[in-house]
Structures
1.
Amino acid sequence: MKDFEDKSDWREVLFLPNGVFLVSYHRLTIKALKGYRSRLLNESIKLRREIGRLREKIKEKKAKLEEIESMLNKLTDDKVREIIEKEEQRKREAEIKAIEFLREYIGEEAFEQLEKKGYFEFTGADGKQYRITKDGRLCRKFGKYWHYMCVVYPEDLPLPDIIASVFTAVKNDPTFSKSSQKLEEVRNWE
Amino acid sequence: MGVKIHILGKNGHDTVELSKEEAERLIEAEEGRYFIVDSKTKQILREIKLEEGQELVMIPIVSGG
């Protein structure tokens, strides 16, 4: 302790179980001491305020959680489950009906191709070769390659009806894809 | 006798049987939203001239680019 009385700053090496440490000591001036104390005081006030705000937030979140849980309980009620099952059953029946219609509409051969290969091919009203995939996407043949085309679907329509709709449009409308025709013109020109 | 119309829509397939005049009015009202296809020929109707006993399908229109 006697050695320290003469020094204001010093450093030393400490060997501890978790590693080697270089420790430095600085004597605080009265001004620095007051400044440090003031900083700590401000920090403690800030933390207290923050804790207060967090408590308020926790309170709000708890109220919201209670509200959500009560709504969730209502929505997992048997009545709701029944409505969902009924709607799903209706959708399944609609899908079956739509598949039956599609089979008849595009023809047995095309329908079999769709089921086996995942697409069916046909000639559009513009004389070009088209392909409709089982997920309702439309492709057009450019030379050796098939290009996906942009199609705007009606909302919420069952997939077989979408296929029927795309098929009808391409089969009957020679100007179905004006932009594709332009693309082909550019390619031919190139 | 009338006209049988199958309507494809998001709520499944509906089939309605209407008189010739009622069917023509329905088709006129839905023009632009549906393809009107003759069930037998599978061709889109180019003009609204229906016949008794005719069977039609209304298919929602898609547009492409």
Note: The domain at 3-60 of chain B is CATH 3.10.20 (Ubiquitin-like (UB roll)).
2.
Amino acid sequence: MIDCKLAWRNVLRNKRRTLIAGIAVGIGLAALIYVDALILGMEDNMVKSATSSFLGEGQIHREDFRQTFEVDRTVNNLAEVVESIRQEEVVEAFTLRTLCFGMISSPANVSSVSMIGVDPATERYLSQIDEAVVEGTYFEGTSDRQLLIGRKLAELLEVGLGDRVVITAAQAGTGDLAQEMFRVSGIYYFNVQEMDQYMAFVLIGKARQMLALGDETHQIALKFHDAYLGRDQDHPFWNKYSRNGNEAVGWTVLLPQLEAAFELSGFSTLIIAIILFGVVSLGIVNTLFMSLHERMFEFGVMRAVGTHPVAMGRLVILEAGALAVLSIVLGMILGSVTLYISARTGIDYTGIEFAGVTFRELLYPVMEVRQFIVFPLWVFAFTVGIAFYPAIYAARLTPAKAMRKSF
Amino acid sequence: MEPNNPSGVIVTEAVTKVYSDNGVPVEAVRGIDLTIKHGEFTAIVGPSGSGKTTFLNIVSGLDSVTSGRVWLAGRLLSEMSGRELSDFRRDSIGFIFQAYNLIPVLTVEENIEYIMLLQGVPKSERHRRVDRILEKLGLAEFAHRVPVKLSGGQQQRVAVARAMVAEPVLVLADEPTANLDSKTGAELLDMMRELNQTTGMTFVFSTHDRAIMERATRLVTLRDGRIDSDETRD
Amino acid sequence: MITFKVAFRNVLRQKRRSLLTMLTMLGGFTLAAISIAWSDGTYNVIIDMFTRTQLGHIQVHGAGYLDRPTLYNTVNDYTGVGERIGSIEGVVGWSPRIYSAGLASVGEKSAGVRIIGIDPAKEIRATRFDKKIITGRTFAQSGALEAILGKGLAEALKADVGDEIVIVSQGADGSIANDLYEIVGIIDAGDATSNQTALYLTLADAQELLVLHGRAHEIVIIAEDLDDVAPLTATIEKVIDRPELAVEPWQEFARSFYTAMKADQQGTWIMVFIIVLLVSVGVLNTVLMTVLERTREYGVLRAMGVRPLQVIRLVIYEVTVMAITSAAVGFLLSLVINYLLSLHGVPMPTVFTYGGVEFSHMYTEINARSFIIPAVTVVLSAIVVSVFPAIRAARTSPAKAMRTH
């Protein structure tokens, strides 16, 4: 159509102005893409951090265990549940754990601790403790008094490999205090304070014995083939195992503030987008008006010669569209380049805690198709929308006024 | 002459135009009665401020009257809506301005074609007419050039081509030779006079160029918004 | 000066364009101002909150305690040290504390606890301890074997005021520490973790339990003003003159929060940078186009004999007029907005923790730098960006310029 041809050529006519305006919008788009990618990367990183370091993608407990951590509240019908889970296709791996609060003491110091009884063989598929061991071994010895603690805790207690510590905890049933001696057989480092300072891992058999649990456990930690299941609280799996006094929950329930924080991030991206485009839109309108002003006489001639007012307005809109396309290309290039650079170097937020999760690895922004399709469409719609102001102005011009105005 | 459908290409009756120049009312045109017939090669002259340009704007529908009536090709301009006026200009009038006639980003060919595109003329017919007029006015070699690459005289010739290609009822030219040197201007005017004589196209000029005044068959002089004299020559 | 008058009138001459340009600058200014006010406000309030009510602004420990909090690393003669600190100007209060870990049981329920021994009188004055009690009362007198629980802990133990609680821990002499206390109050310590694990005893009781007579792990100091913390830390160090003790400001003992805060503030600066960038681009566009349009005018000026520098000044003044107006209006606008927002803070849809500290509200703060920084950057960048077109205007050759039209 003649209009499109006209619009493109007009936009390219003043390359410098078009370039400057295009860069402005492009930067806005690039910034939006980058922030979104960053947030996605952050979410990815945090979820992985939270679930694969220890938590698992889901857990099964007795209904009110999470509120009180009472040692008596063990999983109901354990054998049945375990058997059933074994058959589940969606479950990639699972492990049993005992969990209780206790006191750990060495000759040098005393500290409160979460004593966790694990089955090393199955535990290693669920948590990364085995990978985090820096000294000693991951339960490779023969003794049932093996103990795995974090480096921070070891420092605090002033113990090293082979040293003895005593853990005191309350037993199930009677509530009597039980004390057992353990020997430090391994030390791990997670760079997550909660894990490095407040957790102690022992063999589940020993833990059960110490706490008088018999064959019971407090927690079944799960990992799925499809990581998304952990986020989907409506999946039938959760319902299936939340019965008979048990509760099966995904990590979104275990870490509610994480999920909430994600929602917040989505909201902040929106705010940032609005802010950026607010500032940019003024620039666009200014640019369009200036280009109009420059061509006032020409517009007058076009009107004189019989071009409809609507067609004049349409021309302005199309020009804005052409400008938008150019800017989008610029923005996508800029966005890709900055993302590429960040994807190579990563962003160091390690050690920082947000919403209950500590960053353990470098942040890598995540590029998604959506950023390069949906966002540019927003930009396009936005730019064209803003253009209605100058477009209406152009349409309303009477030929005489236009030609008079330019002198 | 019938009062409601007078004959003549342009007929004005007591046309007056007052506009506001930053709050100060200016009577640019005062009560002009004028009839221009088919085939005329008429120049409207007068000093600056005499109202020539305003008058031309009025009779072409580019501007509205404060009072009075204007008929163009038998149609009463005040009865037409903005849209009708637009279409009417498109179909009935060829415009030539002093400068900046052409759309800078379109080639000569595209510029000439533009009006026919607005009219919805089919492609083959458009191309036929464009080729014919380029040929006729000796512009064939510039067909693919953009205006900025043409001399002033060449640009004005293209403007003439565009003005005529849609076969309008009349051609209105506002100071078409003002930016040209005398030789080029004379050539342009000769070309237009020839068109006037061979095709019978009505030409109305607003000018103070002697060269035009010499070639015109009728000379209307305006002063302070009124007709001062109206001379017909052979 | 005549140039200024001309510049001013030029701005008024093309109302729409000037208005749009000023709006751009105004938008940028206001957004930058609010971002900074928001960031500063939230962090300052949060810091004030957790320092004033829990951690104090400055802490004194035995050297190395922060890194490795053992039972044995204590501040000996804490009363003497404390009193000397209390006499320093700018110190509102000080309070000694003892920390240990243990197991507490009420009836059949037990939980791991963090034992905190406090001096009730001093603690009330320094951190308003009594105001945080939600059920029951604060400690009556030392030596009465009373305990106060965090509310989460009380829930976990299903304990209430009047119940008996048994505490087991390890004494400094290696013995098992074991005693019975009466719960006299339940407290809201301010954050979820503390509420879940905190168990308060009087300092004397804690010293008795843990065999730490005359010793304490920490002296918490509250300063009058958050901004005084750095110089005050230095003063305290000098006054107490005990090289084996470490005096730390909150930036050190709340390091994870401090690091997180710094990282977040970086983000804010980057956003302000981008905003200013966008504004500059907008201004560049406008000024450049205006200059090009007025080529003929500048040609006439130069022909008349106006010197290049004066033409440059003309262009720059125009931009400056617009920039300063925008900054002024922006100042008022952001003042109003910040004031409204700062009245009560903006509640967040959910509470989340960052750097170990809970954020439940966002606050804005009306401070100098949330105006000065945007003002300086917006005005400066507008001027800098106009230099290029200004030079272009000044360089116009009169003859060429007048031929153009």
Note: The CA atoms of residues 323 and 379 of chain C lie 5 Å apart.
